[in-house]
Specification:
The chain is an alpha/beta fold. The chain contains 14 helices and 13 strands. Helices cover 42% and strands 13% of the residues. A 7-stranded mixed beta sheet has the order 3-9-8-7-6-4-5, with helices on both faces. The protein is globular. The mean pLDDT is 96. The protein binds 4'-deoxy-4'-aminopyridoxal-5'-phosphate.
């Protein structure tokens, strides 16, 4: 949170009048999901038109089964996005979230060299908060007990992580979104990565740091390189405790991109038989098209085109929140979200007011495991998917709802 001021520009009656006026407009607005807008998707339209040879240079027929870990050229593309070496990366289907679920299935059924998670009475995973609701949903679906740990602005609170891990032997991992974290926007420091590795690398139960690097190249202005966690881990001998994920969902097409998973050679050997039982091979034509597209278009320049489209949206949100002058909010340098923090006990109310005015927001509590934000104060705003005009209207509604919630006491 970078800014926090509190002054009321309007009285409760004035906010109520504004509320009624907005209600009469029958609006239908949505700030829920961090999706690319259609003009962002248009940046990659050439992928659909690219012609790639059916046979690659080694004679492999891209239309057929096989090459389970992905085309070598696409694995290399994945390594450029994730910022690690290409021998660690596999290129899969269209979603990193499904790779996460496949890796979790593997941990439950076979285990990564230790007792399978499914054979354990209770499996817990640390969830830095505020965090990503789909990580929480995955855990809930798998029956994993989630333990929240606070984020600090440069990664999870390490003292708390250590205390919990020392105390609770059911803890087998932690979710991390190391760059432009969803939804806090923070970037993990090298020191924080070292601390996490020292805690999880030393544990004797093959704990997993789920390193979800979803926003690795998603800067709003200059590119900010993130330290490569594998590089740090190798130097300590802890590379087996990291499994990294990423995708081109917010680089090319969210529904038709490429997902990546990266892990040490020994983890690859353990995971491969399980993964091969789940499928026979990824969509290599799409992988080849992505590779060709990024031979013709520089990845970082392409990301700057995204930034030019979405930066004005982040600026608009910030401008409107500044003029509202209530609560506090993040000013992220990349990623897809702004996190608004109200006074304690108001988030639910604000979200319900917004819903009355036709503005959809992610449900209160969705930034926390089991949907429980005890302070009831966090609201995630996702400004990218709508047009600037819609966003302006949405932020007017949001400001009115915040103002009303604050003034109603
Ligand atoms: N991880 C994070 C942190 C995300 O924010 C998102 C998208 N909202 C995803 C994963 C989903 O990625 P994918 O489309 O590759 O499944």
């Amino acid at each position: 949170m970078v800014i926090s001021r509190s002054f009321l520009l309007l009285s409760s009656m004035e906010y109520s009048a504004k509320f009624e006026e907005l209600k009469s407009k029958n609006l239908s607005l949505d700030l829920t999901r961090g999706k690319p807008s259609s003009d962002q998707l248009d940046l990659s339209n050439a992928i659909g038109e690219l012609k790639v040879e059916n046979l690659d240079k080694d004679g492999l027929d891209l239309r057929n089964y096989g090459e389970i870990t992905g085309l070598a050229s696409c694995r290399k593309l994945g390594s450029q996005i994730l910022g690690c070496t290409e021998d660690l990366v596999w290129a899969g289907g269209n979603s990193s979230l499904s790779l996460m679920s496949q890796y979790l299935s593997f941990l439950f059924v076979e285990g990564n060299g230790a007792r399978p998670w499914g054979a354990q009475e209770r499996v817990s995973v640390l969830c830095p908060v505020p965090g990503y609701d789909r990580h929480f949903k995955l855990c809930e679906t798998f029956g994993i007990n989630m333990i929240p740990v606070p984020l600090t602005g440069e990664g999870p609170n390490l003292e708390e992580v250590k205390r919990l891990v020392d105390e609770d032997k059911s803890i087998r991992g932690i979710w991390c979104v190391p760059k432009y974290s969803n939804p806090t926007g923070e970037v993990y420091s090298k020191k924080n990565m070292e601390g996490l590795l020292d805690i999880f690398g030393k544990s004797d139960n093959k704990s997993v740091i789920f390193w979800d690097n979803a926003y690795a190249v998603h800067d709003l202005s200059a590119h900010l390189p993130l330290d490569d966690i594998f590089d740090i881990a190798f130097k300590r001998g802890y590379e087996d405790c990291v499994v990294e994920f990423g995708s081109t969902s917010k680089i090319t097409f969210a529904g038709a991109g490429i997902g990546f998973i990266a892990m040490s050679k020994s983890n690859q050997e353990l995971f491969l038989p399980f993964y091969s039982a789940l499928m026979i091979g990824p969509d290599k034509l799409n992988q080849a098209k992505h590779v060709r597209f990024f031979q013709e278009n520089n990845l970082m320049e392409h990301m700057q085109l995204h930034a030019e489209i979405i930066r004005p949206k982040f600026e608009l949100v910030e401008r409107q929140l500044k003029s509202l002058g209530l609560g506090s909010w993040t000013s992220p340098k990349g990623g897809y979200f702004v996190l608004f923090e109200s006074e304690k006990g108001l988030a639910r109310k604000i979200i319900s007011y917004a819903s009355e005015l036709g503005l959809k927001l992610t449900p209160a509590g969705s930034t926390h495991p089991y949907g429980v934000d005890e302070d009831d104060k966090y609201i995630r705003l996702a400004p990218t998917a709508c047009s600037l005009e819609e966003l302006e209207a949405a932020m007017e509604v949001f400001s009115c709802c915040v103002g009303l919630a604050y003034t109603q006491g």
